[in-house]
Amino acid sequence: MVVVNGSSAYLLAKALHDEIRKITDQPVKLVINENGQGHAMLGNSYWAELGVPILAHEDAAAEFEDRGAQALASMQRYNREKAEGTEIVLPTETFEDEKVIEMGGMRIEVKNLGPAHSPGDIAVWLPEQRLVIAGDMAFHERMPPIFSDTNTADWLESWENFEALGALYVIPGHGHPTNVDQVRRYTKDYLVYLRGKIAEVLENGGTLDEAYYVDQSPYARLDTFDELATKNAGQVFTEMEFE
User: Fold this and answer.
1) How far is the C-alpha of 21 from the C-alpha of 233, rounded, in Å?
2) 49 with 73: CB under 8 angstroms?
3) 175: helix, coil or strand?
4) CATH number at residue 104
5) Which of these, 91, 153, 202, 220, is most buried using a 10 Å CB contact count?
6) What are the tens digits of pLDDT across the range 92-146?
7) Quick check: is 37 in a domain?
8) Which of 34, 33, 92, 36 lies closest to 64 in space, CA to CA?
9) Does residue 112 sit within a domain?
10) Is residue 240 part of a domain?
11) Tally of domains in the chain
12) Could you say which residues of the chain have pLDDT below 70?
């Protein structure tokens, strides 16, 4: 059995494993970290304790090695006693472009499709089932977060590789299972829309302050809109200012 994401804390990973055991007695033989963020890797400490190998993209491993202590401290602040047992544990194996796993009669392709919202984002592709566990490449219920190290132009290029998979089913990093049309609408189309709005600001000689207030109302229904919309606009302005 393969688990995607170590989870965001030791106890949460243990709770997930308890739920898995209610369904099957098959052992977990591999954990795959979808990126180098705390929500994907902080639970590695639980799986490592069981001797389970942990796989991640090399950039994700480097990101967690660099920022893992910060992610752990942040998680400890909000999780308090539920952070007990969580330690920084790096992946035991990394890859660059693709790692193919044959297990239980299934072919599992772990792919780096190119830069997306954070370093080392990967997708887990099951070609026979036409199912992709997209991680944070694709969003449809939450607004995509754009960070200081996110390059939206690169994300849009990587999106072409994502669509080329021909997935019938999409399991996003956040939210319910869906399809490519939905994640295209709320990820690719959102990035194109926001870049278009920021391009208008730049063409008119506008400032960062003006960029914060571009109209993003078509996406106001998305969770985290209030938290992320203005931040995203500012990050894209900073990015496009030097393109």
Assistant:
1) 44
2) no
3) coil
4) 3.60.15.10
5) 91
6) 999 999 999 999 899 999 999 999 989 999 999 999 999 999 999 999 999 999 9
7) yes
8) 36
9) yes
10) no
11) 1
12) none
**What's the pLDDT score for residue 47?**
98
- Burial state string for 155-189 with b = 16 or more CB within 10 A and e = fewer than 16: bbebbeebeebebeebbbbbbeebebebbbebbbe
Count of Cβ atoms closer than 10 Å to residue 89 Cβ: 20
Q: Which of 175, 189, 192, 167 is nearest to 140 (CA)?
A: 175
103: its two tokens: 């297990």
Closest CA to 110 of 152, 153, 60: 60
Query: Is the residue at 145 inside a domain?
Result: yes
Query: For residue 2, which amino acid is it?
Result: V
The token pair at 178 is 């869906």
Tokens representing residue 175 in the block: 């939210």
Residue 170, phi then psi, degrees to nearest 5:
-125, 125
What is the domain range of residue 10? 2-178
Beginning with the edge strand found earlier in the chain, give each strand of the sheet holding 2-4 in spatial order: 2-4, 30-32, 54-57, 93-95
